[in-house]
Specification:
Blueprint: H1 4-9, E1 12-16, H2 22-30, E2 35-39, H3 43-51, E3 55-57, E4 68-74, H4 83-93, E5 94-103, H5 132-141
Parallel strand pairs: 1-2, 1-4, 2-3, 4-5
């Protein structure tokens, strides 16, 4: 998702909703000099990340004073009560010209409404939460 030159320019990375730290591990393997930290509310996942030598903590976004070159989140928006406020909080954590790296389900942009998996009750909501258009609108409002 980033080339070597881009990664080499990053010094700090915050992954929100880090889970067991899979993304943090990949980041640190690709560029060990990056100071990568994760936020997670699930204590079992925090302990799992610690077993792999990863820094994952349970902290509130509003209490963080540090600034990061990269703030990431993957499949978190469906768990957020106020997406606009969430984007505002993330923007506050970025250094000037920092990078917001996100991943979320994108079934909302399917052209054929009959292909939209939201019609199936067997799929989790974060698979269909939103697409590029929705994400851009939320960021613009933030």
């Amino acid at each position: 998702f980033f080339d070597e030159a881009e990664l080499a320019g990053f010094h700090s990375w915050l992954d929100v909703g880090a889970g067991n730290g899979e993304l943090l591990k990949a980041v640190q393997q690709a560029e060990p000099r990056i100071n990568a930290t994760g936020l997670e509310t699930n204590e079992m996942k925090i302990k799992g990340a610690a077993k792999h030598g990863l820094t994952v903590v349970n902290r509130d976004l509003g209490g963080i004073r540090e600034r990061y070159d990269v703030v990431s989140f993957m499949n978190v928006l469906s768990h957020v009560a106020c997406p606009i406020g969430f984007y505002r909080a993330l923007a506050r954590l970025l250094v000037a010209d920092g990078c917001l790296f996100m991943c979320t389900g994108n079934a909302a942009d399917l052209e054929d409404p009959d292909q939209n998996p939201s019609k199936s009750y067997s799929l989790p909501d974060h698979v269909v939460f939103g697409g590029l258009r929705h994400s851009v609108q939320l960021m613009e409002q933030a």
